[in-house]
Model the fold of this input.
Amino acid sequence: MPRGGPDASCLDRLLQTDRPEYLDRTDVDPAVKRSVVDALDWTGRVFGNHRQFGHLVLDEIADVPDPKVLELGAGHGALSAVILEGHPTAHVTVTDVEPDSVAAMAAGELGSHPRALVREMDATAVDAPDGHFALAVFALSFHHLPPATAAAVLAEGTRVADKLLIIDLPRPPAPLHVLRLATMLPLAPFIPFVHDGVISSLRSYSPSALRALAEHAGVDIELRGGLLSPQIAVAVRR
Ligand SMILES: C[S@@+](CC[C@H](N)C(=O)[O-])C[C@H]1O[C@@H](n2cnc3c(N)ncnc32)[C@H](O)[C@@H]1O
Done:
């Protein structure tokens, strides 16, 4: 299925790639990957993404007493830190598939937080019993996965949690997408964060793609945002 969904236009079908981001590769200097994660953390602080995403999570668990939250693909862990600060009784399991990121989070404040557990975990094969968490959240990460594994995350996230909150880059209509790419491309060969940003944009899923993936995974999905704001999807098991 194209990233633009089953009904994607011809132009939209051209605006995608199978090329991996630096973050997905095993053949790049770990310092390059670290620079991308650090840049994500920095931009999240400066532009308020961590706070905005934290509020989305806190809204979803507002009515759950002592909620258990699972963050998948946490990278730097800043979102989990906001959740822990904003909810006095939430327990957060902070995870990523990348061992270096997990080690860095474990060595930081999250590693010694009494309500946080830092673990290595693949979002497609979560090591937890059914319904263990009130909420699983996967922020700015879903586009990393090709359709088959993305559908596996929808199934796994809704198996271990009552709700799976996906927050990701919006996929704009194709002409706008060309403009977005044109502003980024000149810097992509020089700045790893922009390189990964271009690939992320090309791999972002449209609303119709998200609906098709949810159907394939057998879960219900509700979509919000998109276009000029992050694409938000809340998935629940049927
Ligand atoms: C662009 S970063 C997002 C980091 C952070 N969530 C944020 O919002 O800035 C994508 C993260 O997804 C992680 N990731 C990629 N594939 C994954 C998988 N199968 N399971 C768990 N994490 C994965 C990467 O290691 C990386 O840390």
Observations:
- The chain has a mean pLDDT of 97.
- Residues 10-237 form a domain with the Rossmann fold fold (CATH 3.40.50.150).
